[in-house]
Specification:
172 residues; four-stranded mixed β-sheet
Length: 172
Amino acid sequence: MAQVAEAIPLPDASVDAVLAGNALQWFDMAVAGPEIARVLAPGGVLAGLWNLMDEEVEWVAGLARVGGSAAIGPRDTPASWRVATADMHLPQTGVAARFGSPEQAEFPHGQRRTADSLVATIATRAGMLVMPEQEQEATLGRIRAFLASRPETARGEFTLPMLTGVLRVRRL
């Protein structure tokens, strides 16, 4: 049986933290919020993590422009991530909020990549997968050409500057 945030098989107030990767955006917070609050000890933390591209780096900002919104999604850069996740812990219905004010922070890191591995990852993004095949090929072609044209990415392995975005809220 699959475990879901809407039905957590743990006793009341039994954990200090609930951590979700990129999956937090898929939770039905009208149901999952009260369930997560139920298993959290008083003052416990709900945290979500997202990998973001560091658009402060010029060539990464260029990649985002070339790839467009289908390749670089609404939670993939710090500015858009902050807006998209600020209220993610709140239910979309009239159910009472179970958590305090959100805190957001980003932490730098990098991923070792090649142009081919980065293009392969971008090709798996939801926005890319729903594109008509011809448009998808054209977009991936523009990304390949961009990466081939940049001194940072044209010669084998490189480090893709990333940030881990963290949203943290405390149980009320």
